[in-house]
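Bit of a strange request maybe. I'm writing a small parser for structure token strings and I need a real example to test against, not something I typed by hand. Could someone generate the tokens for this chain?
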Amino acid sequence: MASLARPGGNITGLSMVLTELVAKELEMMKQVVPHMTRVGVLVTLTAPSHRPALKAAETTARQLGIQVLPVAAQTVEDLDRAFDTMTRERVGGVLVPGSALTVSHRTRLADLGLKHRLPSMYSVRENVEAGGLMSYAPDLIDLTRRAATYIDKILKGTKPADLPVEQASKYELVINLKTAKALGLVIPPSLLARADQVIEQ
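Reply from user aminoacidic:
Good idea to test on real output. This should exercise your parser:
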């Protein structure tokens, strides 16, 4: 791809800017768990976006005075071991970049977070609806609507190379208060005020 503004070839689309989101997710997590000095990052090394996301987490963590513990999970069988490792290493919370693994096994992840008493920040709202603590993510309905506009333009003859790759412009913060209470956490009022959805049941 030549550039986001003029991708060239047959490439165009919408970017979820995962690496940029990781920094904001970690900052919000630190607000909820102010005593956190170490954070686990659950990475799927075969997911192309996870290596840059991990680098972004490490950069932000340094600024916040937090150590990053990367823990790899390739399959659902790896999840129990990953949480055992993070508990043993005394992480204060878990950052979970989105992947097929973490979305499809979201209930298992939520259960593990509660079992190990580890607050978790996700890149997909479905993880919070399943019982995870928080997510900060692009509004997928908005992205889908914008993707439909691109498809319409391409079907009417516009070349993909002439359509810039656009970044997500709407983001949603979702907080599960039921999970926060179960973990003994108090969500700062300033963060609750920013939330697009608060799950209480």
